Amino acid sequence: MMSKRKEKEVGGMSAEIRIVKVKVLHGRAKEEAEKLGLNPNDLVILTTSVNSLPEYRVEKIEGDPVSFLLKRAEAKA
Amino acid sequence: MCALGQKLDIVLVLCHSFFYHAFSVQRPVDEEKFKLWLSSRFIANLIIEKQAELPPPPSFAVTSQKVFDKFAFDFHGDKPSFRQKQTVDILRNSIFVVNNPSINALSLDDSVLVICDALYSSSNYETILISNIPKKVQKAEEFYRKKVASATVPYPIYDTIGAEAFLRGRLPELCKTVDDRMKNSVYRF
User: With an 8 Å Cβ cutoff, are B48 and A68 in contact?
Assistant: First the structure.
């Protein structure tokens, strides 16, 4: 999970957020997923923050994505 | 199906009722509404799952800007939290949202009908309109008959229960993956 501070930083920058499967990740985004020990078929929320060199943040989706997103949206930011 | 018997890529055109059911937090008590809610949730998960393997931009599910904006407002109101806004942004990146001034000027119903017609008439996609409003078929017929009295709707219109059955036949592997994720979900709504 991202910290409150990190979320605000991302919110302030040009960030793109999407759901992708680990197996389609490459480069540094893939390295982030590998650090978390994820499987190729795991779904993740990939946040790409563009601040000169892009930063990639990977958050694993537990269970089905819609339920996960709804639960995540309920959490206080 | 195209002339050579090769199956076309499916594109789902989403009406507001799909979003309303799929992202409703409350599990309906009424049995009929529960079936629509569950099938909408299944299709939303299927869309996300399929798009997660494809390069951007999204091409499996489409809606109009007007429909998506209404969904977003219904979802988070006029003071969205950071996480609610992120959720909407994530979904926007799994669905192709058509932002065209001419289409934006239309009603919710007409905006998706125009998108369906454009996809059906000028692309290689198998277009399917998804709506849980029973009157949608009648509205679509009226839409076409404004121009030609004998016109019929050229693409299928399914509710989410019908669409789920269709998609299970066409995308069995992907549907199995979605079933497994839904079965193993740690979050229950």
Answer: no
